[in-house]
Amino acid sequence: ENVRLVGPIELSELQQRALATAEALEVAGAEALSPQGLLEATCALLWELWVAAATCPDVTPSRVAVARAWLGKASSEVRQQCLRFCAGQAAEEGHGWWLTSGDGTSIAESISFMPVAARLHGLGVLQHMLHEAWPDIESGAEAEPPELLQWSLDEAVVQYHRCPGWALVAAAVVERCFSLGASSGLARGSSPSQAARSTWRSTIREVAAAQRTDASALHLAAAVERWASIDEGACKPEGTTNIAVIDDEPVIVENGGGSAPATGAGSVETAPAEIVGDIDTSLLEVHEQLLRWAQAARSGDFVRADAFAAYVASSWVALVSVSPELTTSSRTVVRMHRFVLEQLSAAKKGVFRWAPPGVLRLVAALCETKLWPDSSWPAVLEAVADANELALAAGAGGQDAR
What pLDDT digit, counting tens, does each position of 163-210 carry? Predict the structure, then answer.
């Protein structure tokens, strides 16, 4: 019998099953979790428990402590298989299975009208699991993280077009692995981050040209760009930089072409004109297509705004390195300023609950290249303060502040 979650899962039923599992584990302890011949069934029970813990106050952290301890003490092979099982379940949420309230809403309605964030319970659980399985840099030196990283990237390439959730799962694994420095364990002597960057730049180019852009693919591409940038930085001699001199030639031009004249204000100081790796000049065209995709959405589309801004932020240095002497008055930069300020304004008006994180990453990227105007800082600082206030309130209420 298939032990994986499939189709609509009524939340109350899931919570009841998870509570029964938690109570049994409190009595029997971790010894009750025997993976011998029943590993997938064991993983399925723990997955239900962890998902319920993220949605039900009665499934307290103390009640899942036994399961977390088991994961930490499991053999490398068992832990790897458990993480793969849970990654697969997280990827399929909203496609192969989804939580329902049991209030009579039809299956079609529960998918069509459910906010995207509400389909990501499993992704949050997986992120917690990755932190618990590999809590520190020492654990990142083991073979497990790079193995899971390679597996998740391979699965994303194969599964993404069928189920976009695989891209979000791979992004979570990429982020955790390069934060631990674990990605260096992949294929020693090769450049896995550069290969992944090439693959996902190509994917983004293809879906953008075909007008099939998806936010999940942008998030994975952004994570891979950050990973590749970190690897480049680790390999560069001291005193060199990834940022080249750039001018005011527009990246995204109006129908009539041309650009605003350079004023010199806010221009990037001269730096060694060094470009690490092959810079794909088609990034210019891709950014134009993606900006149109983000702006074509209905007003207040948090998901598109966040994904677009996150990807632009991650590839900003690569983008500016193909054009010299960009300034704060350049058409491309002005458009980025306008886009950011529009999203911050939407958050302030209550259209979004908080400012999209990708938008704040884009501000940081513009600031790093000295292309963010001082006059726009008040809106950014206000957005950060509002987000902090919401996070503190969520934490005080016992919710996951992330």
Answer: 989 999 999 999 998 888 766 555 444 568 888 999 999 999 999 998
The amino acid occupying position 29 is G
pTM of the shown model:
0.79
